[in-house]
Design a protein that fits this description.
Blueprint: H1 6-19, E1 24-28, H2 31-42, E2 46-52, E3 59-64, E4 66-67, E5 70-71, E6 76-78, E7 87-88, E8 102-107, E9 110-113, H3 114-120, E10 124-130
Antiparallel strand pairs: 1-3, 2-3, 4-5, 6-10, 7-10, 8-9, 8-10
Length: about 130
Amino acid sequence: MSVSDPIADTLTVIRNALHARKETVEFSASKLLERILDIFKNDGYIEDFRLLKDDKQGLLKVYLKYENNKPVIMGLRRISRPGLRVYTDKMKIPRVLNGLGTAILSTSRGVITNREARKLKVGGEVICTIW
């Protein structure tokens, strides 16, 4: 089966694993997903992630984070999708839950958070939000 939106599939796998109280989750690797997971890790939404080598493109193993037996990630949402791309300029960068959450943007400077995009004064495609 071909995957038309690997980012949405990845977010759904993470969301479902959190509901099932899984410790880890695995899915196919890509550089974009690695960068998104790096942002999740730096913002404290996941414990860690590892790239596992295999015969194909590799697997990403994500160690999910819980506090007091509740998931740290309260919500994940795919914003821009293949059927409807969502772009923003530097003046209208989204703010998630008044700064408590994070929006991830794909810009000319790479995949960055909404806070970094404001500092760099760049806009781009809004990939997803996490809170």
